[in-house]
Fold this sequence. Notes:
Elements: H1 14-18, H2 22-30, H3 42-55, H4 59-90, H5 94-102
Amino acid sequence: MSRGKLPKLFDGSVNDLTKPSKKKEEKVAKKEKMQKTLYISRDMNRKLIELYGEEGRRQSIIVEDAVNLYYYLRLAIGEKKLRELMEAVKREDPDFLREYLSKFKP
């Protein structure tokens, strides 16, 4: 603190101290941005880069699509079937996955 300057004292009520101000809430609402921190393997990063190159889209959109796909598959086919599907995906064999998915056709 510099000499000769007194700190500004609070001139509000006790209620002002215990309640958040409306101005601050409005500023926070305007700046609502979700931070995404993903810890992924190098292999997953390579796949993301490959998809990004093919799709010509931002990686965040690809990740959001993947999350939506996972979420709605889980709702549609259930936890048990989703685990089976994920095991098929982990084999990283597109032909096996095509054959596996053909079982789901009506």
